[in-house]
Amino acid sequence: MLTIKAEIQRDKLRQDGSYNVRIRFTKDRKVKRISTSLFAKKADLTDRFTIKEDSLIKQEADILILHYRKMFNEIHLEAETLDVNEIVARLNSRDKSDKPVDFIQFAKEWIANSTLKGAVNYTSALNSLIRFNKSEKLYTHQITSEFLQEFMAFLLNESKERAEQLKEKGKRVPSTRSTSLYLMSIRRLFKEAVKQYNKPDQGLIRIKNTPFAYFQIPKQESTRKRAITAELIRKIEQLPYQTVYKGIHHTNRFNLAKDCFILSFCMIGINSVDLFNATEYDGNTLTYYRTKTRDRRMDKAKMIVTVPKILHPLFEKYKDTTGKRIFNFYQSYVNEKAFNKAINKGLKEIGSILKIEDLEYYAARHSWATIALNKVGVSKYVVHEALNHIDESMRVTDIYIERDFSNENKANAKVVRYVFGR
């Protein structure tokens, strides 16, 4: 039989002259004590070191004892087979399960400790949630399917207002993909909270609701098609260089954009961040690990590209003579973001000349895929592999296949030949 009592231990006097009130659980002559937030002074105790019946501390201790007795009665049938340590562990789990989880606080800590490249997207999603909630205090039980519906409406309205502001300024209006992306980010954060706070094997379920089971996240709006024709790519390559250079590094964004666009297109749409940080080149092939998906793939998103001869002059032009990297872009731009920004500003100048609306660096990647599939006859699977995308359905198969990148580079040779004739 289990007995539950409040007790004071005579030898546990604190520096402030008080004693912590402990709850003592006894079963089969075995004892387990837990501390409480109650503290008794000498005036609250009898000579025998029991709590005086008429004291406030006694009333509060009795409430705690009643609380534990009630919880014990709820597990009474199985408690007969448990020892006192297991019983107290179960009671503590039940106790914790009643404590609400602050979702926003958890999310902030999770993002801060995350090594994901897309952590900034989670921060943006969380900031949107805080704006909608009008408070940085939000418990998981408050996140219901109805709450999510209202949050989605809020996101769509924000997107609409932003689009109207951009229209007034004559700028391009982005898609509403952020609504889906933000909702997916919040769903991921909610799942992570469930993983952290729910321990079913210990009988601890602090997050009991499943709001996303009854809420459908809208499908993402298709990304804007940014591919341009082979003729326009040739025109970019044939544009004369500008002769005016600026800054201490003697740079020209127009020239940089022209060259980097061709570098990207002829190397299967390599991203600017990977171009900026590339370090492995043997004179024939460039090896890199795609930054965007490196942390989500077992192969670290490895890519080996045979460098077409058409690019050899550009490799020589931008060669890093120190040997630290393949290209010397890092010597002129503080980081990959500044580098990408400079390229896109230069591409706006090029787009203006060639009448290409809102030309961006990523158009090289889109154009390579489009030409490979529609003009050269490369299979969609090879295009998928060449772009180094993640295919969940192939994860197991990929474990058994040693990839040599030959199909991707054969496809690239066909694309380069189709566009440039060499």
From TrEMBL:
UniProt GO BP: DNA integration; DNA recombination
GO molecular function: DNA binding
Residues spanning the signal sequence: none
Entry superkingdom: Bacteria
InterPro entries from the UniProt entry: CB, DNA_brk_join_enz, Integrase-like_cat_sf, Integrase_recombinase_N, SAM-like_dom, Tyrosine_recombinase_XerCD
The entry's keywords: DNA integration, DNA recombination, DNA-binding
PANTHER family found in the cross-reference section: PHAGE INTEGRASE-RELATED, PROPHAGE INTEGRASE INTD-RELATED
Name of the protein described by the UniProt record: Phage integrase SAM-like domain-containing protein
Species the sequence originates in: Prevotella jejuni
Pfam family, one: Phage_int_SAM_5
PROSITE patterns xref list: CB (PS51900)
